From TrEMBL:
Annotated source species: Marinomonas arenicola
Record protein name field: Uncharacterized protein
Source lineage: Bacteria, Pseudomonadati, Pseudomonadota, Gammaproteobacteria, Oceanospirillales
Length: 194
């Protein structure tokens, strides 16, 4: 029950955050217009609040394969994918042991960041008869949230710190669980493209 509640809260938070993130490219566009002093002020405030990327830790992330639910959909509808993941009794029945981590991967973003290929699942090695799975890309990722117990406000602020002017290859959320499926920590990484 705790895990389900945590997942639903996370889905709600992601929906709120993505709604806020969808507005950011408009700010970036406004920033490029020289004759828009109000837009410049908003961008300057955002830069002051979030700092620059040089202050963020860059970490090596090894390739992972996960098994779960995946679909290309509007970011605002991520709650539907969480529900499908929670209802996936066939997947949960194939678990070899209690999961200690759940991954959420956002890949293949649309140009306006309204749609993405979203995948929610477990590491392939703890699922019997797992099949091919969903690949999480290896590389040097920018750590947006270090592993810790984060409030909904911290997660929302983390999504707002992504640089939507740069190409985003993938965003990975990792939720760490106890054996009783209680959420103990979450973290977030982003892999920017060239």
């Amino acid at each position: 029950m705790n895990f389900t509640h945590s997942v639903m809260v996370s889905a709600f938070i992601v929906g709120v955050v993505w709604s806020a993130a969808l507005l950011q490219p408009q700010i970036a566009t406004a920033h490029s217009l020289e004759e828009a002093p109000q837009a410049k002020l908003v961008v300057a405030q955002a830069g002051g609040q979030h700092g620059d990327n040089t202050q963020k830790l860059v970490v090596s992330f090894n390739a992972h394969t996960m098994v779960g639910n995946s679909d290309t959909l509007d970011i605002a509808n991520v709650g539907e994918l969480w529900q499908a993941f929670n209802d996936n009794t066939a997947l949960h029945a194939r678990l070899k042991k209690a999961p200690t981590r759940v991954f959420v991967a956002y890949q293949g973003f649309s140009n306006d960041f309204k749609r993405a290929r979203i995948s929610i699942g477990y590491e392939q090695n703890i699922v019997s008869l797992a099949g091919t799975g969903i690949s999480l890309k290896a590389g040097m990722h920018t750590q947006i949230l270090a592993p810790a117990k984060h409030s909904p406000q911290e997660i929302e602020q983390a999504w707002q710190t992504l640089d939507y002017r740069r190409p985003i290859e993938q965003v990975i959320e990792e939720y760490q669980l106890t054996e009783n499926n209680t959420l103990i920590a979450s973290s977030m990484l982003v892999l920017y493209g060239e």
